[in-house]
Amino acid sequence: MKAVVFAYHNVGVRCLKALIGRGVDVSLVVTHQDNPNENIWFGSVAQVAREHGIPVITPDDPNTPEVVEQVQACQADFLFSFYYRHMLKAPLLEAARRGAYNMHGSLLPKYRGRVPINWAIIHGETETGATLHQMNVKPDNGPIVDQMAVPILPDDTADEVFAKVTLAAEIVLWRSLPGLIAGSAPHIQQDLSLGGYFGGRKPEDGRINAQASAEQLHNFVRALTRPFPGAFADTRAGRLLLWKTLRAGESKPAARAELYAADGQLWLRCSDGGCLMVLEAELEGLPLTADNFAGRVGTDALAL
């Protein structure tokens, strides 16, 4: 079986390795040039391809006639997309004889679209997963071949959940390939009414809603913590970033979330009366702790 692979990120690395491990002849890998302005915390698809002698291209636009011709020349049975960041249009999707398939980081039809793991945590989901589905010109709505769920624990960060989803993606692809090759893999139509579509996120989208509940704020912080840009608020003392919180019972409700120091610890009092223990915070680029809170902020609570 021959395949062309469009891939990036850790899911791209592990799924490319799964194809190679199953003996698939990968004729071409299409990936992205790393952006020097981006925090590259993930593995390199290009490096894996080169280690295995697979040709690699990194077009800015994969849908140009030149790239389509390169893909068509491979005469591939399948086209796979594993966390590739650009939409693939009809000429590419039709270039493989037996179809095009995508690995998506959610339990479709839930969280179709961009950054599904971050969105799932923001919304307080207790599970997500990986889904292999057939591609068409509309994003993430083709028939499902297989999917696998993973838990989202109450304090899991997006990075921790992403590691689980990466493993689930590898398992789903590995166990689906024999059926795809044999032509016996299931193709189950999605009921799109059971999920929704979500767009991408920018650093500015990390601005904290000071009227959110303690649970909502905790979910927001852990969805956006490192290696992502973080949850932030512009305060009277400067820009505050919250990197790690834990839920810590109840307190007196605040008109808007406010940060204070007590008993050697930072606390965030929230509008619903919930309270968060703040384990890691940053103010104007420097660590903020209970010990230096008074010197940097003053004795009054810091409103977000």
TrEMBL record:
GO terms for cellular component: cytosol. Gene3D superfamilies: 3.40.50.12230. Residues 20-173 form the Formyl transferase N-terminal domain. Keywords: Transferase. Pfam families: Formyl_trans_C, Formyl_trans_N. Residues 202-293 form the Formyl transferase C-terminal domain. CDD domains: FMT_core_ArnA_N. GO terms for molecular function: methionyl-tRNA formyltransferase activity. PANTHER family: METHIONYL-TRNA FORMYLTRANSFERASE, METHIONYL-TRNA FORMYLTRANSFERASE, MITOCHONDRIAL. This is Formyltransferase. The lineage of its organism: Bacteria, Pseudomonadati, Pseudomonadota, Betaproteobacteria, Neisseriales.
